[in-house]
Fold these 3 entries.
Entry 1:
Amino acid sequence: DAEKDPTERLRLIKMLRQASDNLLETLANLNQVVDVNSNTLVIKKTVHLRHAVVKVLQDQSALLEHNHAQVTNHVPEQLQINCVPAYLDSILLNLVSNAVKYKSPDRKLQITINALKSEKGIELSISDNGLGIDLNKYGNKIFGMYKTFHNREDAKGFGLYLVKNQIEAMGGSITVQSEVDKGTTFNVSFNEES
């Protein structure tokens, strides 16, 4: 308010707007996490996993085509999963879009999606041949809020944190295997109990 120089005043207003926008985005992210963590009445439904994967791939088709991604979907046609449908969509969307976001500039992006039913429940894996993550350096931070591992402007460090919270809210777990410049595999175990 005290600034007299109009150019400097405009610069300060622009900075305030950016700070305000960033704060609003942070609040929205935190609200999502609070919603997931405080929703003790998570209602699971039976979903055809392959159909859910196909839907997310269709929703992301422009992004996948633009990045020349080759996606292989090995999820069995009849495999059903007991889950919160909105959480499943979010999990799939985040893991597929991360594969695209962190693709290697040196090779064509390949994403492979597998699933099977085991004695533990449904096991889902999403693999890519992208940049990979140095797990020795970042392994204990990979699912942390606002943690990023590559120098990308659009990296927010929120997606994997949300994914982990959604999976755990449904009684499941997520692990990661990765090698720098080889790729990454996220393994999700869904708890099939209601």
Note: The chain has six helices and seven strands.
Entry 2:
Amino acid sequence: MYKVYGDYRSGNCYKIKLMLELLGIEYQWVAMDILKGDTQSEAFLAKNPNGKIPVLELDDGTCLWESNAILNFLADGTAFLPSEPRLRTQVLQWQFFEQYSHEPYVAVARFIQLYQGLPAERQKEYEECHVRGYKAFKVMEQQLTRTPYLVGEHYSIADITLYAYTHVADEGGFDLSPYPAIRAWLARVASQPRHVPMLG
């Protein structure tokens, strides 16, 4: 059975939980508390020397890390990852976008607000995250006004990747009311068979 080392409140960890649930794969969840230093223990660093969650441990003890890489592993050969090269590349395109233009701002603002309680010394960074986060939402909105999912007509790991932190963006102080296409997409994703909420 797979083991997932993660924090239920983490969007990156939620990606893996959601993917496993959608695929109907059994797994064991190993709760980690990053604020208590769980990811810096010698035992955990043996699994991921980068000291970050999530980590997916396979039956043979192999450990995979980086959430979007794990998604590609789990989705390979399924309907959640297109086999056609152009579409598969577009999935990767959105995953790279999430890691470079979305997650560093939307997730960080959420961390500052939800986990740290908006400390004064991070207020400027929090505001800068909002500027860049809203820019990312504009990019998503443009695509989602044209297609129901980020890569055309079909739900894929591109959607899972960006749903994870977008659907809890309000916990980072973001207002999605000006983005109707994103809000409709969030509802479509949540209505998928076998969908589970972050804390469900």
Note: The CA atoms of residues 109 and 126 lie 5 Å apart.
Entry 3:
Amino acid sequence: MRLFQRITIAALMGAMVSASFGAATASAATARNGVCEAGEFCLYYNSDHQGSLSDFTTSIPDYGDSQPSCYEFKSAGNGQGLCVKNEAAAAWNRTTGPVTVYYNSEYGGAKQTIAAGAKVNLSASLKNENASHRLNDSGTGGGAPTYAAPPNNPHPSAATRAPSATARTQFVDDQIARLTGEKQCWVGDYRPGQPSTSNHNTGNALDCTISNAIGSYPSEAQKAQGWKLAYWLQKYAAALDVRYVIWQGKIWSVARASEGWRTYTGGSGVTGGHYDHVHVSVQNPYGD
């Protein structure tokens, strides 16, 4: 089976470029260049479309809290370089469908729907309180497609030796490939520098490459793609027997679910901070 072959870091260098989800955009638009072009949704730092702007061609489930993982204001002007989250005051919807801005990440909480072509100031409940937006979303629960629910994981907690995967982990990998289309997920080689009971060494964890290569930051579309996978793993953690998920310097765990996505302090840099791959650990006998 795919996970039972010996995997090296070099093998993880395969590209995993995915189309963004949301409304189709005009081919002339250049995402994230600080210019609000046809086919894009743009947020402005100041009211009345003043100050620096941030342009998007995809739905964004979480703008991020800090660099290098946050979406920032790109153009010259007041606010340039600041993270967009909780800092936007106005919006221009140059896509062909409605776009809804949300108070919470993953499209939750208070919201404001902006019609195609409209230029508006954000409402009092959303001004400087914005966390996500979704294209082709009329504010009634529609919008970007989500992945289907997986079946329950039928396999008991177990341990093996990397690069082999336990049956429980193999099940998770199979569902990821089948339902999300992500097929660059690996247990990886045995890691002598880690405890023998660690998630990877016991075949109880997967690393899903999202960027073009391990060691490189993802594109904006890939970042959104990674969040879509991470949120799916979070949503169906009970069914899949997921223990925790790490992506973009953030970690979510079943044990501390009430705290949401927390800052990850277990590593730094592109790979150590999990900016190039989504890590998922499954429940295992050791709890490592």
Note: Residues 1-27 have pLDDT under 50 and may be disordered.
